[in-house]
């Protein structure tokens, strides 16, 4: 082989040679799991393989190198993980849970106001039903009979305060269930997880506030 051919072959191999890619290992800032990336993605946004959150990789490893760590995916406009990353970052369900928790507190406040305002009417209604039950009537039968008597002696309809209380009670129960469900779903995502935790705490405290507020009503009729 001539010298020129040897030089051309050497240059061809040199052009095709790529230095080995070094790995950078670090902990995800969202879930603290150890992950790995190629050094070409240093100081760029990547997707954590654990929590799917987007994190900025460091310029060099921030932990002792270990083999077998999950590899993070680079974040690009066409990546399949883009939508899940956006969802993880925003975590709309946690925000909804907090909003529902605020509505729940307002519903509980309305319940307490209604029970406090119409405490005398509630007490009178409960006493009438209790008297009929003691005479042997069933709870449902006694309630219907008292409502019928009140309708005959009153305006002929169910009292407005009873309608309002029943509506607020039903709304409070629905909002409470929605708050708990949204909070539990939101807690599964790392992003904005504290909001979901706050919502679940409020959902747990709201019934306690309602029960404690019952002491404000005459004879504890709540």
What do you see in this structure?
The chain has seven helices and five strands. The radius of gyration is 33 Å and the shape is rod-shaped. A three-stranded antiparallel beta sheet has the order 4-3-5. It has a two-stranded antiparallel sheet with strand order 1-2. The protein has helices at 3-16, 82-90, 92-117, 119-134, 139-153, 160-186, 193-213, and strands spanning 23-27, 34-38, 45-47, 54-56, 73-74. It has two domains: 22-89, no CATH class; 91-220, no CATH class. By secondary structure, the protein is mainly α. Helix 3 runs antiparallel to helix 6 (160-186). The termini are far apart.
Task: Quickly count the helices.
Answer: 7
Helix content: 55-70%
Q: Describe the global form.
A: rod-shaped
- The strands making up the biggest β-sheet line up spatially as 4-3-5
Distance N terminus to C terminus? 102 Å
Q: What about the largest sheet? A: 3 strands, antiparallel
* Overall mean pLDDT: 75
| Order of secondary-structure elements | HEEEEEHHHHHH
Beta content: 5-15%
């Amino acid at each position: 082989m001539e010298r020129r051919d040897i030089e051309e072959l050497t240059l061809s191999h040199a052009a095709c040679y790529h230095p080995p890619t070094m790995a950078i290992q670090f902990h995800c800032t969202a879930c603290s799991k150890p992950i790995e990336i190629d050094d070409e993605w240093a100081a760029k946004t990547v997707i954590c393989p654990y929590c799917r959150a987007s994190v900025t990789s460091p310029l060099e490893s921030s932990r002792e190198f270990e083999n077998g760590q999950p590899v993070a995916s680079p974040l690009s406009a066409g990546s399949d993980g883009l939508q899940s990353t956006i969802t993880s970052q925003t975590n709309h369900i946690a925000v909804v849970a907090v909003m529902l928790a605020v509505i729940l507190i307002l519903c509980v406040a309305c319940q307490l106001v209604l029970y406090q305002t119409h405490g005398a009417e509630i007490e009178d209604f409960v006493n009438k039903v209790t008297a009929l039950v003691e005479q042997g009537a069933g709870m449902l039968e006694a309630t219907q009979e008292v409502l019928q008597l009140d309708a005959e002696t009153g305006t002929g309809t169910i009292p407005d305060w009873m309608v309002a209380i029943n509506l607020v009670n039903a709304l409070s129960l629905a909002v409470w269930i929605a708050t708990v469900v949204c909070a539990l779903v939101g807690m599964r995502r790392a992003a904005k997880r504290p909001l979901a935790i706050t919502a679940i705490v409020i959902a747990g405290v709201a019934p306690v506030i309602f029960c404690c507020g019952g002491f404000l009503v005459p004879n504890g009729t709540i």
